[in-house]
Design a protein that fits this description.
The chain is α+β, with helices and mostly antiparallel strands and 110 residues long. It is built from 4 helices and 3 strands.
Length: 110
Amino acid sequence: MLPHFKESIMEVEQEIRIDEKVRKETKEPPKYKVIFLNDNHTPVEWVIEILVKLFKHSNETAEQLTLTIHNEGAGVVGIYSFEIAEQKTIEATDASRERGFPLKIKVEQE
């Protein structure tokens, strides 16, 4: 066998092993919770509307989440990739401020 041919085979085998190792180490990106915080100034109706329109909850689920937020001081309204969680938080905050409501929202890693 030619010496340079044998070296080529060894390089290919090495590349395959490296690729296999990389695939084994990949993992899902983390998810993030969007959390609404209770306040005494944002109307319940507005929270429900935001949950239905921006977070795609049913009216029944939105009402249940709103009660949880009111009674417990906070509630998780969705779990998303970071980019989506951030975008939904910005949209909900902007819409609330346009209406004069101080709705507070935070994003936490799950």
